[in-house]
Amino acid sequence: MGHGAPQRSVRESCRRQVQVPSPSSRSHTCSVSRAPAPSDMAHQLAQSGRSRHHARRSNPSPPRRNDALRVSLKGHSPGSWLVSLAARHSRTPPHSPASSATKFARHASANSSSFLVVELRMARSMESGDGGGGGLVVTELSHIKELVRQLEAHLGGSDELCRHLTTEIFSLTERSIGIITAASSSSGLDARKWEYAGLASPLPATPTSDVADGPFRSTKKRKVMEKRKQQVRVSSPRGGAGENPVDDGHSWRKYGQKEILGAKHPRGYYRCTHRHSQGCLATKQVQRTDEDPALFDVIYHGDHTCVQRPAVAAAPEHNPDANSFLQSLTAGLTVKTEGLPALAADPRGWSATAPFYLSTPTPASGCPATAERSPFSAPSTSENWGVSPATSDSNHVASYLPFEDAGWRGQNELLEVVSALVAASAPPAPAVDGLDELLDIDDVDIASFFA
DNA sequence: ACAATTTGACCAGA
DNA sequence: TCTGGTCAAATTGT
């Protein structure tokens, strides 16, 4: 809608444009003057987005570094939020870290795996989102950090995985602290940067914020940015190897890519596939974060007006997106949750939930998933897992990609851990809805909780 | 043949 | 003038 299509005055230059090798290294377009040798081409294609289907097929996905661990922070209620650290450890049961009033450690073991769940619940000030609460959170996160340190010591240095896990927890926690610190230090959060799904920023709406009623309004702002805007941070389903973050339940068509000043990674521009057929004006921008290439910042503009029926519409579940995920996941857990209070305010009601990898059920049967294929290698479906803002109004779906770990067998284990989490949670405040809430985890989206 | 992606050019806002 | 968002021809994949 921004600028009318016919407005493009002269397109002649485009018509006679010739493809030349892009200066950027990721250029893979065949130059008019030089046709790459097959091997050369294959190499280029292997690195290009275009060939990623093929590449995915031929490349058995290596174990992701997020396979075993997530640090998650979740909005719990308007007044409190929950931090869950779940570390999985195979073979050597971890010892519970020191307990404290605000920390709950639970050790659940089953078969060859063990879980250590450190749950930290803390209250935050409802009003002082840019100050006091942040300080408390930082303090508590620091405690977590210390706990992890202790845990690492207990686990001993022999187990590579343990070390990896603790390292991961540590770095994530540290990063979370950094986020909070940065956010609260500069007079609160950057509303533009951290306007996470459904969680309004405390700052006055920026020119690009969503208060616009329609595509055309004021004259000072870019027309494009007049629309509703939501930003989420999600991780890549392929541990950063993928070009796109989790699928959000909508079909998008890429229409542009741009190098952004000061950013390490280009920004991709997507619009709804049904833009022309149904006039859906929803767009999104996807960009890898500088800090962690496995994470994406996804900015959504505009609401979907298209009617999108998932292929699994015939499934009995009432949430089509959930079905979609269930089908697409090779073996996973999909949980539909009721929206958080803050989320409920959002018409779309979806959260900035990032995938939380918990376990690998990989049952021999009973699951639509196929056992012969690694969950991570699923080329045609890997795009489809993740969160779905798609259609749920007050619900959203969080799905959890399983580990790729032969030693990790068990839905049982998952359930056990989940049960542990549930048992551990029993919150005083507006109840955590059991598994739903606990599994509905925002991956290091701490800042949003101060919004 | 059709669909999707790539990529340089164009355009508008700052 | 710079930067970011979009367009659309060319290219590639299915």
Q: Overview of this structure, please?
A:
It is a single chain. With 451 residues, the protein is α+β, with helices and mostly antiparallel strands. Helix content is 24%, strand content 19%. It has helices spanning 12-15, 38-47, 52-58, 132-155, 160-185, 275-278, 320-328, 341-344, 411-425, 434-439, and strands at residues 69-77, 80-90, 103-110, 113-123, 229-235, 252-258, 267-272, 283-288, 295-301, 333-338, 395-400, 442-443. The strands form 3 sheets. The chain has a 5-stranded antiparallel sheet with strand order 3-4-2-1-12, sandwiched between helices. Strands 5-9-8-7-6 form a 5-stranded antiparallel sheet, with no helix packed on it. Strand 3 and strand 4 (113-123) form a beta hairpin. The protein starts with 11 loop residues before the first helix and ends in an 8-residue tail after the last strand. The protein binds a DNA duplex (14 and 14 nucleotides) through helix 1, strand 6 and strand 7.
The pLDDT mean sits at 44
Please state the structural category.
alpha+beta
**Largest beta-sheet details:** 5 strands, antiparallel
How do the helices and strands follow one another from N- to C-terminus? HHHEEEEHHEEEHEEHEHEHHE
* Cα distance spanning the termini: 30 Å
Alpha carbon gyration radius: 23 Å
What would the principal axes of the Cα set say about the shape?
globular
Domain WRKY: 241-304
Main location: nucleus
Biased composition (Polar residues): 19-32, 377-391
Subcellular location: Nucleus
